[in-house]
Design brief:
Layout lengths: L2 H10 L1 H7 L4 H8 L13 E6 L8 H6 L8 E6 L5 H8 L3 E6 L7 H15 L4 E5 L3 H5 L3 E3 L2 H7 L18 H14 L3 E6 L1 H14 L5 E6 L8 E2 L5 E3 L5 H22 L3 E6 L6 H10 L3 E2 L2 H5 L4 H9 L12 H17 L5 E6 L7 H21 L3 H4 L3 H14 L11 H8 L3 H7 L16 H18 L7 E2 H10 L4 H8 L8 E2 L8 H10 L11 H10 L5 E6 L1 H4 L5 H19 L5 E6 L9 E6 L4 E6 L2 E6 L9 H8 L1 H5 L26 H8 L4
Parallel strand pairs: 3-4, 3-6, 6-7, 7-16, 10-12, 10-15, 11-12
Antiparallel strand pairs: 1-2, 2-17, 4-5, 8-9, 13-14, 16-17, 18-19
Helix pairs in contact: 6-8, 6-27, 11-12, 15-21, 18-19, 28-30
């Protein structure tokens, strides 16, 4: 039998075909699973009850641009008790509903479609659900697919946005809006559902305002793994505690980072530097800290809140104001990291796990100033020259030359430029690769693309430099276990107590011995031994003593990891697939009851499932003014980590414990396993659980 025939025989084997089939038994079971429904959806249909108890700070520009939906109220879905012919008729009315994914994928998105589809078909089998392909471009260009039971069933409880794909286009111009309206009219849509983040739900509000006159309802759905869509009213009451996709991504990242904790504690050789997604908020990093107890976790919001007391005291004595004392500097942050590394090394732990949020640099004051100025320069150049800055200046040298020219202009009389000579000098001190990163092309929303910047490389460069300085000063040493030291010297017939005080600075009463700061080389070791009279000028250093010194010299070895896109494509956890399925059911109920300009949400996510309450949140009152592409624009405000929240306070209080800069085991935590159907004690984000348990404490 030829090789080709043998291979074909293998491929024709039914058992082998079953093994390599793209649809495995677990996937079949996952697709069959039907998530639990909130209590309100146990009835055939429900009604909306508007509430006046929630207040919002309405921005005047939002009121001006969205006059017809700005006064929408929070709506609670309530079961329909008894017969109500009018609501029943509305519920059963034949509809064509369009749905679009916008922005990056998030686990659970397919279940939003599944919940909407199931509710629509149950209300009226003739209802149609239309999927717009490739994100908002599908609306603008009228690229669609009619969703059938067969299509929806293939993607139930499965991660990604593969059913209809996604895209990042914004419907942010008159032309795009007109094309979108025409598409919705041509399709005879009753309603449009926009699944996305802050920008996408902002789009949903403008579409709702625009299409009101056409009788087309628009409903938004909160999606982002970053967790930065968390809706509270003006009194701080949570209406939407977390966007969908966050829990799955955090659990996935935590599982992988936990594996690294186990590995580094086994191999005792590497510092694992783990960058996790989170451009403007550190929610994922906070959740990972709670899930894994990584040795160091940076929380960007905490860094921005930092005040350098020593600098303030110096400035007060000198009768001046030191503005650089407010907010963490990049250099000081590297010192904080180095201090933790040195302290762990002193007890023999020259390894560990450092978790860094993707957008940590945005919270560093000096970097934020550069980003704001460069964003403005690029936006102004594009407007004034009707071209693209990055197409005009292709290489770093050309971009730097343009900045140099702006700086020279600032020297002229009565000439103001955003970029001055001080900016130019400070920017020149930054490594080339980071200059290039800060000058890279902005994303489609005008945001600085932090995920593409080697944040960890910026930090590690400064950390390595300072560790080398500390090593030269004799302060970065690897602690030697007393038991090991005594065994090695006794085996060679040497007296440990004789050499100990000559070599170590803490020989009396410590389990981990630190070589004296003055001993930083074999040459200085010889000097110390000669000064103590242990050896003469021509005598060799005892081999065992020399080996002990060499073991005290640390080597800072790192492994770099980025957690982002893998988490976006994960199969959803019980929390996210149940959450999103009920969001889909909520969407249909809002549509059936005539709502528009609302965001479908579930209140009480921080509580047990039985307490979940489907609601509609008005989108327009959530908006504020923000700089986008050098212009002020109305957008939904993103939520950052609350430094007064119980979850953050717990992490802050346990930092020292988790750093574990002491002899003995680390305090690493292994997250619970992910199960397909059953709920566990981790059936919701730990940040939500702790915030709920700590409420009122």
């Amino acid at each position: 039998m030829s090789d080709n025939d043998q291979v074909q025989s293998l491929l024709d084997n039914p058992k082998i075909q079953e093994v390599i089939d793209s649809v495995n038994p677990e996937l079949v079971e996952r697709r069959r699973h039907t998530p639990r429904r909130c209590r309100v959806f146990e009835k055939p249909c429900c009604r909306l009850v508007e509430s006046d108890e929630y207040r919002f700070h309405i921005h005047q520009e939002a009121a001006a641009q969205l006059p017809d939906i700005i006064h929408n109220k929070v709506q609670t879905l309530m079961p329909l008790e008894g017969e109500d012919g009018q609501i029943g008729a509305l519920h059963e009315k034949q509809r064509t509903i369009g749905i679009v994914f916008s922005g990056g994928p998030a686990p659970g998105g397919h279940n939003v479609i599944a919940g909407l589809f199931d509710a629509a078909k149950a209300a009226n089998p003739d209802n149609r659900v239309i999927g717009f392909l490739m994100g908002p471009d599908g609306i603008i260009e009228n690229e669609t697919i009619e969703l059938t039971g067969q299509i929806v069933d293939k993607y139930r409880n499965v991660g990604g946005f593969g059913m209809i794909k996604t895209g990042r286009t914004k419907i942010d111009s008159r032309e795009k809006m007109d094309l979108s309206r025409q598409t919705c009219r041509d399709l005879g849509l009753s309603a449009l559902v926009v699944v996305g983040g802050d920008d996408s739900n902002t789009n949903a509000a403008f579409l709702a305002q625009e299409m009101l006159k056409d009788g087309i309802q628009v409903i938004g759905v909160p999606k982002t793994i970053d967790g930065d869509i968390q809706v509270r009213d003006a009194d701080g009451r949570a209406l939407c505690a977390m966007s969908f996709g966050f829990h799955t991504a955090a659990r996935g990242f935590s599982s992988e980072i936990s594996h690294l904790c186990t590995d580094c504690a086994s191999d005792v050789k590497y510092w694992h530097i783990c960058k996790v997604m989170g451009r403007v908020a550190s929610h994922l990093a906070l959740e990972v800290a709670l899930q894994t107890h990584a040795n160091i976790t940076l929380i960007g919001e905490d860094l921005a809140d930092y005040v350098d007391g020593r600098r303030l005291a110096n400035a007060t004595r000198e009768n001046r104001v030191d503005y650089t004392a407010y907010g963490m500097t990049l250099r000081h942050l590297s010192r904080v990291i180095c201090d933790a590394i040195v302290r762990r090394a002193a007890v023999g732990k020259n390894y560990g796990v450092l978790v860094v949020p993707e957008g940590v640099l945005e919270f560093i004051n000096e970097i934020q100033v550069f980003i704001i100025k460069l964003n403005t320069i690029i936006a102004v150049y594009n407007r004034e020259h009707d071209t693209d800055f990055h197409s005009k200046f292709l290489i770093l040298e050309d971009k730097l030359d343009y900045l140099h020219r702006l700086a020279r202009l600032s020297r002229g009389e009565e000439i103001f430029t955003v970029w001055n000579t001080r900016d130019d000098d400070l920017f020149s001190d930054i490594p080339d690769f980071f200059q290039e990163g800060l000058l890279m092309e902005r994303d489609s929303h005008g945001n600085f693309p932090f995920s593409q910047v080697e944040t960890e490389k910026v930090l590690l460069g400064l950390v390595r430099d300072y560790l080398n300085i500390l090593k030269d000063r004799g302060r970065y040493k690897l602690g030697i276990q007393r038991r090991y030291y005594e065994k090695i010297l006794k085996r060679a017939g040497l007296n440990p107590d004789y050499y100990g005080p000559m070599i170590f600075r803490n020989y009396d009463g410590h389990d981990h011995l630190l070589v004296k700061e003055s001993i930083i080389s074999i040459k200085t070791l010889r000097t110390a031994l000669e000064d103590a009279g242990a050896i003469g000028p021509k005598d060799p250093i005892p081999r065992e003593v020399e080996n002990i010194y060499k073991k005290s010299v640390p080597s800072f070895k790192t492994q770099i990891h980025f957690y982002g896109y893998d988490g976006r494509g994960s199969n959803p956890t019980w929390f996210d697939r149940t959450y999103t399925y009920n969001l889909g059911l909520t969407v249909f109920s809002l549509i059936a009851n005539g709502a528009t300009g609302q965001m479908a949400a579930i209140r009480n996510l921080e509580k047990h499932f039985d307490a979940w309450e489907p609601i509609g949140i008005p989108i327009a009152p959530l908006m504020h003014i923000e700089d986008r592409k050098g212009r002020l624009a109305l957008v939904i405000e993103r939520s950052v980590v609350d430094l007064e929240s119980p979850a953050f306070k717990v992490v802050k209080a346990l930092r020292e414990k988790w750093l574990a800069a002491h002899p003995g085991d680390d305090d690493y935590r292994i997250p619970a396993a992910l199960y397909h159907e059953c709920q566990t004690e981790e059936d919701r984000p730990l940040t939500l659980l702790i915030n709920e348990l700590g409420a009122g404490a």
